[in-house]
C-alpha cells in the first residue's frame, strides 16, 4: 500500500492530497479569517509566535485526512510537536511522513493579512518527495513532485536567474529568532547589491523564489514544517539550497545555520559566502 501510494504521488497524481488541503482550509481556516476573537489566539513563545484555533483545527483535519490517504504514514505537525516534541523523531524513522504547517504565517493571519498559507510535504527516509503550498486568501496553489517539476495553479514555474546587476532582495529570519552568531552572519547581507528584509510567511517566500519574484532567503531556524514544502518547490523550479557549511539542508535537523535558498546556484553561493560560509 505504501509503495503504491508513493509511486502514485511520484507519478504526478496528487489530486487527492490537493483536495484534502483545500477541504481543510475551507472548513477550518477561511471561516475564521478576520473573524478571530481575542481568546482564539494564544502566544506560544512570545508575541511573534502565535497559535490560533484555526491552526489547531486545520492540523487535526489534515492529520485525519492525510493518514487516511496513506495508511501506515505518520504526521509531523507544528502543533503536535509543540504539544509533544518527541513527535519530531518520526522524521528519522522508516514510515512515510506528512510534514504539516496548518497556517504558515499565523501572525499575518491574525492581523487579517492574506499572506499566509498551508504547507504539506510528503517525506520518506529523509527525502521530500512531494509538496503542496496553498494560499487560500490569495487563491494560489503550488505543487512540486520530485523529478516532475513545480506548478502554480496548474502552470509550470521556473525560478530562472536574476538579471546581471540586479539588486538581490533576500528574505531573512526575524531577529527575535536568531542567536548572536546568526545575527552577525545575517549582517553580512548588508552590502551593495543586496537588499535584505524580514521574512513573512516562509512558505510564501519560498514560492516567491520558485516563481522568480525573490532572489533568495537566509533563514536561521530549521523546523521541517516551515521548510520542507518550499525547499522541494524551489528545487523543482530550478533553484538551489545550501547551508552555511556548503552542505545540503537535512529536514531532520542538525544543519549548520543560517542556510539559503535562491533562484540559482550562483545566487545561493553568493548569499552563503556573505553569511560567512567558507
UniProtKB/TrEMBL annotation:
Binding site for Mg(2+): 78, 101, 104, 226
GO biological process: inositol metabolic process; phosphatidylinositol phosphate biosynthetic process; signal transduction
Reaction catalysed by this enzyme: a myo-inositol phosphate + H2O = myo-inositol + phosphate
The UniProt record lists the keyword Nucleus: no
Cofactor(s) the protein requires to work: Mg(2+)
Cited InterPro entries: Inositol_monoP_metal-BS, Inositol_monophosphatase-like, Inositol_monophosphatase_CS
Alphabetical keyword list: Hydrolase, Magnesium, Metal-binding
Magnesium recorded as keyword: yes
Protein name in the entry: inositol-phosphate phosphatase
Protein's organism: Streptomyces vietnamensis
Amino acid at each position: 500500500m505504501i509503495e503504491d501510494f508513493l509511486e502514485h504521488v511520484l507519478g504526478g497524481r496528487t489530486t487527492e492530497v490537493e483536495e484534502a488541503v483545500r477541504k481543510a482550509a475551507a472548513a477550518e481556516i477561511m471561516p475564521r479569517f478576520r473573524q478571530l476573537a481575542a481568546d482564539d489566539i494564544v502566544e506560544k513563545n512570545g508575541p511573534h509566535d502565535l497559535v490560533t484555533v484555526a491552526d489547531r483545527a486545520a492540523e487535526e483535519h489534515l492529520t485525519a485526512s492525510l493518514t487516511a490517504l496513506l495508511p501506515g504514514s505518520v504526521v509531523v505537525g507544528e502543533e503536535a510537536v509543540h504539544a509533544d516534541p518527541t513527535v519530531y523523531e518520526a522524521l528519522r524513522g522508516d514510515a512515510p511522513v506528512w510534514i504539516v504547517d496548518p497556517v504558515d504565517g499565523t501572525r499575518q493571519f491574525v492581523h487579517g493579512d492574506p499572506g499566509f498559507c498551508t504547507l504539506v510535504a510528503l517525506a520518506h527516509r529523509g527525502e521530500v518527495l512531494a509538496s503542496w503550498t496553498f494560499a487560500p486568501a490569495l487563491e494560489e496553489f503550488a505543487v512540486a513532485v520530485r523529478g516532475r517539476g513545480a506548478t502554480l495553479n496548474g502552470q509550470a514555474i521556473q525560478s530562472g536567474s536574476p538579471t546581471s546587476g540586479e539588486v538581490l532582495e533576500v528574505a531573512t529570519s526575524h531577529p527575535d529568532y536568531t542567536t548572536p552568531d546568526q545575527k552577525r552572519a545575517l549582517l553580512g547581507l548588508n552590502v551593495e547589491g543586496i537588499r535584505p528584509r524580514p521574512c513573512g510567511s516562509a512558505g510564501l517566500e519560498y514560492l516567491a523564489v520558485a516563481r522568480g519574484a525573490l532572489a533568495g532567503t537566509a533563514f536561521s531556524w530549521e523546523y521541517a514544517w516551515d521548510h520542507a514544502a518550499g525547499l522541494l518547490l524551489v528545487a523543482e523550479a530550478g533553484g538551489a539550497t545550501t547551508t552555511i557549511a556548503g552542505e545540503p539542508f537535512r529536514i531532520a535537523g542538525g544543519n549548520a545555520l543560517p542556510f539559503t535558498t535562491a533562484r540559482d546556484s550562483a545566487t545561493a553561493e553568493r548569499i552563503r559566502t556573505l553569511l560567512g560560509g567558507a
